[in-house]
Structures are given as C-alpha cells and as structure tokens.
Design brief:
With 149 residues, this protein is an all-alpha fold. Helices cover 74% and strands 0% of the residues. It contains seven helices and no strands. The longest helix has 23 residues, at 67-89.
Length: 149
C-alpha cells in the first residue's frame, strides 16, 4: 500500500487583489505614494487610534474591491446626510465655490502637490542662499547709509 503525500497548495489569487497586499497596493497607487508609506500610516494609526484605523482599513478594503460602487455609496451617504442637515436646520449647508471644485475630485493630486512643494523648496533655498550672501549684506548696508544721509 503506497501512501502518496498530499501537497497543500495555496489557492490561486484572484485578480481583484482583496488581500492586505491588494489593499496596500491599491491605496499606494491611488494616492501616488509608496507601499511603505501606506503601511507606516496603518501601523501608526493602530498605535494611536486603533478603532478608527480598523474602520478605515475596512473602508479601504471595500474601496479597493470595487472603487466605483464604494464611491457611489459614499456619495449616497453624503447626499442623505446633506438632506438630513437641511431638514434639521432648515437651511442649506454652507458652500464655498472653491470647495465645490475640491469636492469634485476629493482625492488631491499628491504627485502634483509634491512637485509644487519641491518647486517652493527650491525657491526658498535660492532666497536663503541670497540672504546669507555677502552681496545681500553689502546692499543692506548701502541702503542703511542712504537712509541715514
């Protein structure tokens, strides 16, 4: 009697990527950051606000599984909350035209924001270099002399 060893195979992964790796990859891709940043955010979240982080994790799982469905449900919930606010307080929710533009795409463009910060940092570095230069010191002394006479 021969016994064949049964091999335990891991189930094939689905294309939906609904595991932890799929959630991390989906969030990193959507926000334009590295996977390490997402993981670090969740670890820090679990340290400082575990319940909130758990809720965000479940939300991210649903969102990565089917982004369109999740976003339509969130929009429906926001509409219901807006109607409840209007019914309760009898007025419209305060809106700002610039806020409307932001809410059209609720996820900011992090790569564009990163480029803007890099540009501003470069500009600040140029200003810092100029302010600490000998030329700036001399021009300041000349202006002081012109003002004294």
């Amino acid at each position: 009697m021969s016994h064949k060893r049964r091999r335990h195979h891991r189930p094939a992964r689905t294309k939906s990527g609904c595991g932890v790796n799929g959630i991390v990859s989906g969030l990193a891709r959507r926000f334009g950051v590295g996977k390490g940043v997402v993981i670090t955010g969740f670890v820090l979240g679990f340290i400082f606000a575990p319940l909130l982080t758990l809720l965000i994790g479940f939300g991210a799982w649903f969102w990565v599984r089917d982004p369109a469905e999740f976003e339509s449900r969130m929009q429906g919930a926001a509409d219901r909350a807006r109607r409840a606010y209007q019914w309760t307080f009898g007025s419209r929710t305060p809106t700002d035209p610039s806020a409307e533009a932001v809410m059209a795409d609720p996820v900011p463009e992090f790569p564009a924001l990163r480029r803007e910060f890099e540009r501003l940092e470069e500009r600040a570095g140029s200003l810092e270099q100029y302010v600490s230069s000998e030329e700036f010191r001399l021009q300041r002394e000349f202006r002081h002399l012109d003002g004294a006479s």
